[in-house]
Amino acid sequence: MNYITFGRFTLPADLLAAFAAIFIGALIYRAREKKSIDDWFWNSFFIYIAIYKLSYAVFNFKMFLDTPLSLLYFNGGTAGQILAFLGIAIYLYWLSRAKGSTITPEEYIPAYFIFFLLYWTGLFAFSQDFLAAAIQAVLMIGFILFYLKNIKLTMEYAILFLMLEALILSLFSDLLAVENLLIFALGVYLIIFQRLNKEEIQH
Amino acid sequence: MNKNLLSFAILALAVVILVVNIWKPGSTESEKNTTAPAGESVETTEDIPGAKLSSLREGAEAPDFELNTLDGETIKLSELRGKKVILNFWATWCPPCKAEMPHMQNFYEENKDNGVEIIAVNLTNMDKGADEVQKFVGEYGLTFPIPLDEEGVVGTTYQAFTIPTSYILDENGVITKKIVGPMDEKMMKELTGVK
């Protein structure tokens, strides 16, 4: 993992990239919709952080009791990440199936892409892999233009964007790293969920 | 875009991704070589261009030092050749250092017989005195060597300004990685390549 140092502060690069992505992502949403993004966007993020961090306390309970502050610096590792992604998947499912919910799965996918494309761009930039960051930025800007122009994000387009991302990660990072696989799993899950939901409405 | 064209693009991409990833095992194998036994990594160390030009880069030889430990023994870094070393810099007042200590102790207990040594240099000139360090070490039950940097020379040489700072050294005393910030057990395992 990379750490970025500001004076005496040291922050993990992934956390920094994620925070940047969530705020910039919300701004991009606002630019198109002219309103703030719904709570589910922020909630998903906090569900992820909460599960990822707190699972450290569960998995390393004795160490956590000895030094509770260590929670600030560590996380639940791979198992914690899997639980955190499951948490998001269950939350988003529950949310759009809840009675009287106005949230449809169609809103999830653009937000998913905007967030992760920003996140990966940030991550590459922070690890000073500028070629990868530049190529990632091209894909990100491509998607954002696509989004701002209100082109309908069909399943085929969503898969196309996922594939392009997979190609970039295969070239510059490790596509098969657990974190990347989990992010793709979430993307595929959202696409399928949207599809099933649509079919249900049509019937 | 035409639907057929899209489907074709998706298929073509899938093939490219597959090819790229199948090719990859070659590159991960070469990465594994750096964690191979000492005999092999001698060559890889010398292959890095300009490796010895700058004293504190990844791929450069770690500057040697000799310090007295908390137990009153003398420790010399270059005498640890043949072992991987986690060279850590810390102080008792630093919260992230406290957070990583139990992880280091666990890692040490599990791996001290696997050719990995932990040297946790206390920045004594910036700390609250040897008694406080002794108390801290007792509290956390630390058993790895704690050299005391009383003059502050070693800490400065190693640019340990934000602590904790750690260096991972290979069997030849070459820096393979500098880490600023606390490490957990899993990270130490990945960085040293122990199973």
From TrEMBL, chain A:
UniProtKB keywords: Membrane, Transmembrane, Transmembrane helix
Domain of life, source organism: Bacteria
Membrane spanning stretches: 6-28, 40-59, 71-95, 107-124, 130-148, 155-172, 178-196
Annotated protein name in UniProt: Uncharacterized protein
Organism this protein belongs to: Mesobacillus boroniphilus
TrEMBL record, chain B:
Keywords: Disulfide bond, Membrane, Transmembrane, Transmembrane helix
Recorded coiled-coil stretches: none
Classification via InterPro entries: AhpC/TSA, Thioredoxin-like_sf, Thioredoxin_CS, Thioredoxin_domain, Thioredoxin_ResA/DsbE_sf
Domain Thioredoxin, chain residue ranges per copy: 56-195
Chain positions covered by the region annotation Disordered: 28-50
Gene Ontology molecular function: any one: antioxidant activity
Membrane-crossing residue ranges in chain numbering: 6-23
Keyword Disulfide bond: yes
Any matching Pfam family: AhpC-TSA
Keyword Plastid assigned: no
Protein name: TlpA family protein disulfide reductase
Source organism per UniProt: Mesobacillus boroniphilus
